[in-house]
Amino acid sequence: MSGEVDFELAHPDDHHSGPSDHDDVLDNGRPPSRSRWSPGRIPEAAWVVLAGLVVAGFVVGYLVAPHSGGRSPAATTTVTVHIDASAEALNRLVARVESPYRLGDDERPAPNVPACPTIPTKGDPVRTMMTALTQQLSGFAARDAANTIDADQTLCAVEVRARDDLGATVVMTAEAPPNVAAPDFSASSSPETGTTARDVVAVVDGWRVEIGWMGPTAAAPAPQKLLAIAHDPTLRW
Fold first, then answer.
1. Is the pTM of this model over 0.85?
2. C-alpha span between 83 and 126 (Å, rounded)
3. Which of 48, 52, 53, 182 falls 20 to 30 Å from 219 in CA-CA distance?
4. SS3 49
């Protein structure tokens, strides 16, 4: 769950050749060489220094100014910056845990391509998800749940929010294919002293399962235990 942002840094063509208008001015406008200095005249060494400064100024201007016209296009370098997705996932988890509103069903305005799986006629996805959860973390009871259904009335995702007697909250989401393949993801933080927020994501055969846990730090499960729940095959209806 990470993003990438590409920046392009433009550099002038390193092989730009041929005399420029600035070179002509410097070559043609340079005063005759003088072996001796006389009052009122600038020494030849000073002219050399002055010419160097002028050339340096034009070079800096060339590098900074945008190039157009008949000049060759600027070379580009792509810099890739990795943006950590952990903060986004954990912030979303905290918001879900602390929300006073019940989860509500959602309907997508257009059919998925390919379509989401047909709603199973046997078994309840919410009950199945709770069974997978309590096999690894006992004491949790469902607080509320929501389904995401597409225009064909097929089931695309299920979200369950559950709590235990210790005050911990789990938010589980199972989403039907298609989903982009990705390695297992886990992230942890401490939103406040004595509290831990932990989020994991697993994508298996196109199914994406995300499990977030938030509660007392002393009771925080290991990421491997949450990932074991996310890999439970019963979560794919």
1. no
2. 33
3. 182
4. helix
SS3 145: strand
Residues 46, 37 contacting (CB under 8 angstroms): no
Is residue 27 within a helix (H) or strand (E), and if so which, with residue range? helix 21-29
**For residue range 122-158, what is the model confidence (pLDDT) as tens digits?**
678 999 999 999 999 999 999 999 999 888 888 899 9
Distance, in Å, from the CA atom of 194 to the CA atom of 182, rounded to the nearest integer, reads 31
Q: Is 63 helix (H, G, I), strand (E, B) or coil?
A: helix
H helical segments located in 120-177: 125-136
Return the DSSP state at 36: S
All structural domains of the chain with their residue ranges: 3-79, 85-235
Which of 176-210 are b and which e, b meaning 16 or more Cβ less than 10 Å from the residue's Cβ?
A: beeeeeeeebbbebeeeeebbbbbbbbbbeebbbb
Residue 225: which H helix or E strand, with range? helix 223-230
187 by DSSP, 3-state: which? strand
